[in-house]
Amino acid sequence: HRIDVTLLNANQHPVILAEDIAEDVRNYYGGSSGLKGITGIRHFQKITYQDIYPQIDLLIQLITDQSGKFAPKYSFIVNPGGDMSDIQLVYEGQTSLSLSENRIEVYTSIGSLKDGSLVYFVGDENVSVTGKFLLKGNRVSFSPLKTDPSKKLIIDPQIDYGTYFGSDSFD
Q1: What percent of the chain has pLDDT over 70?
Q2: What angle do CA 72, 6, 144 make, to 5 degrees?
Q3: Could you tell me which of 156, 126, 152, 141 has the C-alpha nearest to residue 56?
Q4: 158 DSSP assignment
């Protein structure tokens, strides 16, 4: 089952910064790549989409989870002058969405998935504050937090799921 999450009214041409190149390479076979596939593709641990919204960056990274496996993570960095209410995630492909214990629950025809909790980090000292998701139809946003507008704010949703389909050998 496929679920898409898009950013409503986001910058379609952000500056993209790739950091922390991984040591291994990826190979992709099938589809339009033909029999030879696309091989030897380098990848990165950290990608930043600068100004995905005015004065807001989107950071996507691979982190090592508690079991030692790589896990996807995303955060929004609201720089001074940014407005966190600009950020809206639109979910498509699910049967329904709900909020349960301040976690997003995504229902599909084959079961449900839950996103983790939401944390805000304020300023360079990274003081953490529990955040709240807001849900309106299929749009998810974040409850406003009154902070010093001259300080950076990191919106840090926790992901409890993420998928990658592939194989280490021939399928």
Answers
A1: 93
A2: 85
A3: 152
A4: P
The pTM assigned to this predicted structure is: 0.83
Structure tokens at 117: 């909790």
In Å, what is the CA distance from 130 to each residue of 57, 80, 153?
Answer: 20, 20, 13
Q: What is the mean pLDDT of residues 25-39?
A: 83
How many Cα neighbours within 13 Å face the side chain of 33? 9
The tokens describing 37, both together, are 């596939």
pLDDT higher than 50, residue 88: yes
Contact 58, 7 (CB under 8 A): yes
pLDDT computed for residue 160 by the predictor: 66
94 Rama class: left (phi>0) / alpha (psi -120 to 50) / beta: beta
Beta bridge partners of residue 6, listed in sequence order: 90
Residue appearing with tokens 């969405």: 97
Q: 17 and 50 in contact (C-beta within 8 Å)?
A: yes
